[in-house]
Amino acid sequence: MQTKKRRIESKSQSTLTSFFTVEKQTKKKSVKVESTAAESIKKETVKEGSAQEESTKADSAEKSSVERKSVEEESVNEVIRISVQEPVKLPERDLVEREEEEEEEKEEVAWTNSIYTEEFNRMITTVLEGESYLFDEKELELFHQFSAFEDAPRDLIVRLLMRKHRWIKQNSLHKYPITDIDQTCKILSDSGWIEREMTDIEIALSVLTKQELKNVAKERHIDIQEEKNPRRSDYEKEILNHMSSKHISYGNTHAFIESKAKKLWDTVNQYLGISNYQRRYTFIEQTIIGPCVYVRSHIYTLFQRLQIVYYRATSLYDTNYVSQSILAKVSKRNYPQYVCSRSNSIWSCREDLLRFEEALLVEKQFEETLQNLPGLKRIKTWSRKERTKEETEEVLLSGWSLCETKIGLWDECICSKEKDLGVYYKRRFEAGWIYTRLLDRGTEILAKLREYQMESLILHKLLSQRVYRLGKRGKWYERLALIQMNYLEKNDAKAVRDQKKCALQTCIDALHDTTVHQIFLPSIQERIKRLERQLCIPKREQHDFSYMCLKKPREIIIYGERLSEEVLGKKSIWRTNNGAECSVEQVALEYYSTKGFKGLHAENGIIRMIASLLFWDVIFASIPGVFETPYQTEPLDLRSDAFYESRFDIIKERLNEIENGNYLEMIRSVDEREREKQTMCTGINWNYELQDILEIAECIGPSSLASLCKLLFEEYGQRQSGMPDLCCWNYEKKECLFSEVKGPGDTLSETQKLWIETLTSFGIQVEVCFNDRMLYKS
Asked: How far apart are CA 586 and CA 566, in angstroms?
């Protein structure tokens, strides 16, 4: 997915570059200047030098004024310079003509800002209109200073703010359509917005690529064992150790280290693109002037805070909100049309915003600590390499330490909020929500570290509050009961029995908790029955859940050839009829095709797709406070109880229309309107073909489809998993079948059992397909 995302962003970057070339505003009657520039671009591939010279002459002949002439030459040279860096894709002719008509109405030459800068201007204007109270006087002054910058400094600082906050090589900035990078950097440096002096060798090494670090080590004769496949951090560590080492030195050790440091800086500077006259040495510390830039921390923090307020950001990890809006503006990403009404009371005061921002930064640090962590999903994979196990444990411990330091702040958030709860779905913009999410992730770390005592304490704390993330309470009850039942005491028989009593009470509390969703109840009831048997509770005192017993689904057994061995955490590999490798679900699809069914391995995808198409205008109905930005794929309250309650009448009306048989035309009209634009909406996957969608909906039938949609939107946040793997249908017979596929040794989860029971109660055919491991096919 991330590879696809990078590909999309790369394509959009070239599209934006073409926009920068043509979105320059000129004086009245300056259309000829752009025409001349465009002609020069076409000619430069044949004879670049002569083309530029002819273009300049043509401009000189056309304008008599010296001032006008200089403006024309500057515009031509600017366009040519950009075209040399990367190919320019000219826009469609009708777009150019519209821009030329707008330009002719202007009386002065004014080059427009880039589309990125326009987005930042829009952010500042929108936020300061109604939420300026969230910023202090110094921050407001910086916003005004940003607006007062000329185009080049403003465009460059925007580009820098969109990148990760670190030192950046100045020569990497020449790809941006900015005339004089050196002069622009000097303006920003003099204004106090960026730094250009680097005095730390460790920071300098962090700017270099892995290959450049490898070259530095080689040139300074630093021995690094390549057969161990060293990582970037290994190179940095060895180079720093080399600079500070004292071996083979005689006499003045301090002078020797200074000499090694100076030589190392000489080598590093070569890769930073710094000439000798740009270097300045002061003992061990060297100052590099010119080739690297760094946005000052208070500037970067301020504009990050601006984005949080404007985009209503609920996560800072692996999310670029500006890029999302830019992709929408250049039609690379389309969002649904709805009435956006910003409420200026998300944060009542600046202190609330700062606490929320701090919580987001802590969560970002936590996720960055755990990213690419080997063995995170399955602790048993640690046994593959002892080195991996040790490193993984160290990272997990650092991640939990970060969570542990925030428990006090989380307690403060709970205490302050219990007095005034407010609207539930807006609590996601509070620090307490983020810290609750962080502690929930922390329990997963404790489970992998086998720190069950601490995990049970954190789960108790999570369950003791009824303010944040109430939809997770069923999961917390389940995990706490499991720990109390199996992991806390193993030696003392009496202590084991006491813990099982505690586990039983935890399950009973879950049954009485009205916030625990129905989807968790079957597994909790099963655990109660198991505990009561183990505790030898008399039959007459045991709970009776026979009235809620789920019916056993229809089961079939098919046979296939399995190619892979059983490896924990990996999907099994099977062979298709044509000899190709496939998944166990594909084997089942081949079986159903012999029975006359077409099929999709969709899990809950196809049902969500049909429901979203049918309820498109309901989802994006104009409800106050649920659409804060133009870049939402769902309303803020969709995954809460408030969604169904606030739209009860229009949902009931839509369900009646579906039961009356009008659903196929609804699906077709929304699909035809939105598919071409590939509009982003929750539950929508445009890879499904319209014909398949219509056939499946018709085979399910109006009554069953209405019941399924009603359930989904009543409990949208809890009904996102557990659906059967396959959706199969026979359009000629108007039959629809959902099938859960299981390989050898697999069993149904309680969530899957509940979904099977639910679908069956709606009159939809469901079965469980067991794929047995055999060396022949049926």
From this structure: 18
Type of residue found at 16? L
Backbone angles phi, psi at 699, to 5 degrees: -70, -35
Domain ranges, residue 385: 339-347+371-548
Q: Is 178:81 a contact under the CB 8 Å cutoff?
A: no
Distances (CA, A) of 507 to 490, 523, 524: 20, 10, 6
Do 652 and 736 reside in the same domain of the chain? Answer: yes
> What average pLDDT score do residues 24-34 get?
36
Instruction: Measure the CA–CA gap between 558 and 774, rounded to whole angstroms.
Output: 9
DSSP secondary-structure letter at 64? -
- Note the pLDDT tens digit of each residue in 261-273: 666 666 666 656 5
H-type helices in 195-296, by residue range?
201-207, 210-219, 232-244, 253-272
Alpha-carbon distance of 387 to 266, in angstroms, equals 35
Q: For the chain, what's the residue count?
A: 778
Contacts 24+ apart (CB under 8 A), 476-480: 476/440, 477/506, 477/507, 477/509, 477/510, 477/513, 477/516, 477/520, 477/524, 478/510, 478/520, 478/523, 478/524, 478/527, 479/443, 479/447, 479/455, 480/456, 480/506
Residues 572 and 523 in one domain: no
Residue 471 in tokens: 């939809």
Q: What is the pTM of this model?
A: 0.74
Q: How far apart are CA 104 and CA 30, in angstroms?
A: 7
